[in-house]
């Protein structure tokens, strides 16, 4: 039954974007806090538009109501100004977990009929 109810809200800190600062000759890591603001357990997963440059760890998980997780977003070294960074972003997707499901992430939750919500966090690079 949980699959027919739209997933509730999540909160991310930062809320709207992620900023990395130069120099870019070394790996940078930035932490995001994800909080399940809803009354239901959710499964969540991160995607990135640039797998070569951006990494997310852990990339997926499960959060109980009001629970939060700390996620490390890393940016590998790259030639700033010589590579296109305009479309860089990470996206978190989340969905309600099925009633009675174990607290273990399952990719299938995102492939069925259940509603999936998304939040985009653009990446900004300061020179």
TrEMBL record:
Keywords of the record, alphabetical order, are: Cell projection, Cytoplasm, Cytoskeleton
Q: Which InterPro entries match?
A: Ig-like_fold, MSP_dom, Nematode_MSP, PapD-like_sf
Functional description taken from the UniProt entry? Central component in molecular interactions underlying sperm crawling. Forms an extensive filament system that extends from sperm villipoda, along the leading edge of the pseudopod.
Domain of life of the native organism: Eukaryota
Q: What phylogenetic lineage does the species belong to?
A: Eukaryota, Metazoa, Ecdysozoa, Nematoda, Chromadorea
Gene Ontology biological process terms, A to Z = oocyte maturation; positive regulation of smooth muscle contraction
Spell out the GO cellular component terms annotated for this protein, sorted alphabetically and separated by semicolons: cytoskeleton; pseudopodium
What region holds the MSP domain?
A: 9-126
| Xref: Pfam families | Motile_Sperm
Protein name, entry field? Major sperm protein
Q: What does the UniProt entry say about where the protein is found?
A: Cell projection, Pseudopodium; Cytoplasm, Cytoskeleton
The cross-references to SUPFAM superfamilies, in alphabetical order and at most eight, read: PapD-like
């Amino acid at each position: 039954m949980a699959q027919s109810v739209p997933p509730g809200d999540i909160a991310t800190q930062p809320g709207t974007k992620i900023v990395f600062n130069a120099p870019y000759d070394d790996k940078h890591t930035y932490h995001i806090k994800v909080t399940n603001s809803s009354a239901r357990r959710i499964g969540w997963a991160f995607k990135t538009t640039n797998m070569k440059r951006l990494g997310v760890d852990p990339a997926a998980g499960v959060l109980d109501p009001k629970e939060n997780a700390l996620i490390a977003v890393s940016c590998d070294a790259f030639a700033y100004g010589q590579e296109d960074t305009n479309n860089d972003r990470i996206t978190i997707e989340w969905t309600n977990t099925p009633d009675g499901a174990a607290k273990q992430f399952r990719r299938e939750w995102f492939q069925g009929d259940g509603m999936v919500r998304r939040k985009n966090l653009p990446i900004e690079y300061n020179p």
